[in-house]
């Protein structure tokens, strides 16, 4: 093509503890078996995706003191899954969600550097935080960290990890085993860090990895979260799917990154998304409605709204009107272990009531509207057009895609949509880089110890 097009970044995720994956489908696989993760990863690599993404669940969620089993119960640890996938893929990045609140810098930095070595430079870390005392009980840290301090710890955690990764210079791993090489390596790995959260010193045991630093991802919508992402992340998750608000978020993240001295292109913006395809637009819409009804049953709808109302809503008819009671944000949590998605429940409920009145929504209809997640519905050509247009207009740099059907759902996208994106020059036809950082078009990290 005569005009160079912005290249679309694609990640593939395996849904876990959420309502989006229809685990009850007869074609669904296991959330534990390695075959599930292997199939999705290999399909993504066949489609020339940039990376495979795995979320994290540190505690079994509870509802009213009992195990919350609306989707699945149980998930393997993130890092062993990614290490296993490194052996059955060649180019695909391997990104895991790992908590900066409950881990320690030395151990986690060592694990990620090891994954980067084992995969030949394909490791990534989605940095998340927590102030959840319920999850913290598993780590004997329940309630130890105030909500306002979670990013303070995360920022210092990331600074320490980078100090550890940079404690080995670039030439230490590549040096020949001559006398000079041994002298250089004798001094490698030394670190000393004292801050508000961490006070550690010693020698980092893992040599500098192929990428120098694993690729860092982060999700943050609050001003504090946006500053953290813009200052320290290579990619940031965007919660926005409508073009105008997505463009505003895109501009804001890049402006914040520039104010922190980062060059253009240093931060990629990636919303999550799903898709439903059909031979015609009408068929796709029909399939989409069927998927939504299977994702959000009547009971699931009640439970999703309980996360905002913080009340037991099991007595309300899913096909009836919205609950006529106000939220109870100060009461004991009805749902434990689920992320808080709406900071102001009163404003959220007021908005939902206006919407339900205007559109005649039942409780379940409202839940489908508020928590349904499929953004791209149509023929393969229509979906390719919409994805490409969104990226070319700077709504994002790409998408992290999942399917309601795990593990085989992504096959449909790779077989039918990917070739169309490749034909228009918006998606690679082969991998051009050696590492995940290369393929994402990210600058290499500077060699040498970073300041705290």
From TrEMBL:
- Domain Luciferase-like as annotated: residue spans: 26-393
Extract the InterPro entries matched here: Diverse_substr_monoxygenases (IPR051260), Luciferase-like_dom (IPR011251), Luciferase-like_sf (IPR036661), NTA_MOA (IPR016215)
List, alphabetically, the Pfam families matched.
Answer: Bac_luciferase
GO terms (molecular function) for this protein are: monooxygenase activity; oxidoreductase activity, acting on paired donors, with incorporation or reduction of molecular oxygen
Record's keyword terms, sorted: Flavoprotein, FMN, Monooxygenase, Oxidoreductase
Which residues are noted in the entry as FMN-binding? 97, 151, 222
Family label: Belongs to the NtaA/SnaA/DszA monooxygenase family.
Name of the protein in its database record: LLM class flavin-dependent oxidoreductase
